[in-house]
Amino acid sequence: MVPTMSVSEKELLTMVLKAIRKMREITPKRNFNEAVEVQISIKDVDLKKPENRIRARIKLPYPVAENDKIVFFADDTHITALRSLGSNEIIIIDRAKLEEFSSNIRQFKKLARKNRVFFSSSSLMGLIGRYFGKILSPRNKMPIPVGINDDIAGVISDAKRTISVRLHKSPTIHAKVGHINMKDEELAENIVSFILFVKNKLPKGWRNIRSIHIKTTMGPPVKVDISPRKKAS
Which range of residues forms the domain containing residue 92? Predict the structure, then answer.
C-alpha cells in the first residue's frame, strides 16, 4: 500500500527552513536584493477540467518585496489620496494616460511585464478590461478594483503581502514569495503559507504535489524535502 502523505504545518516549516539555509549556502552573493521564488510541480491532476485549475490571490504574512512595483489606474477621486502617500513604489496612471496606452500597446506590455501588482479605481475597470484585458489576464495581473470609500493606505499595505497564484495548462505553479534580505523565519512563513494554500486547493492534497523547489531569481534551485509519513499502525 502507498503510504499516506501527511505533513503538519510545524513539520513543513522545519523542512522549509532547512531548504532556505541550503539556498543561502549555495547561492552566489549578488550586489542587489534578489527575489525568492517557489515552484511547485503538480501530478495526477487533469487540468482539462476547469474545476482543477487555480486562479487566486493570497495574502502572505510578510511583504513580498523590499521595494515593490505597483501600478494604480486612478480616477480623480483616488489621485489625491495616492499622492498624499508619497510612495515611490506606486506608478499612478490617470484616465488620460490610460487612453494614451490604448494606442501604444507595446508600451503597455512593458508596463505589465515590469510591475507586480495592479490596482484600478472601480470606475475604470470596464475601460481596462476592454483595452488591456488580453494583456493583463494571461499574466494574472488584472487590477484589483478599489472603491471610492476604500482605505487606500490599507489597500496598498495588503497588496505588498499579496501574490497571484495560477495553475492552468502547465502542471507547475510558480510564485515570487519574498526576497533574499528577509529573515529566514519570515521567508519560511511566506513559503509555508503559499504551499499550504496550493495543497488545500488540490483534489488529493499532498498526493498531487510531485516536488517543491525554492530559489533566488538567478540562483540554483533547492528541493524542499517533504517525505511521505506512514500512518501509525
Answer: 70-159
- Convert the pLDDT of each residue in 42-51 to its tens digit: 999 999 999 9
* Whole-angstrom distance, CA of residue 7 vs CA of residue 18: 15
pTM given for the model: 0.84
Angle among Cα 102, 153, 194 to the nearest 5 degrees reads 80
Among candidate residues 121, 158, 161, 163, the one with its CA nearest the CA of residue 143: 121
Mean pLDDT to the nearest integer, 93-117: 93
Arithmetic mean of pLDDT, 165-172: 92
76 and 152 both lie in a single domain: yes
Domain stops at, among 144, 159, 174: 159
In Å, how far are 6, 87, 149, 199, 211 from 111, measured between CA atoms? 42, 18, 27, 32, 32
H or E element, residue 177: strand 172-179
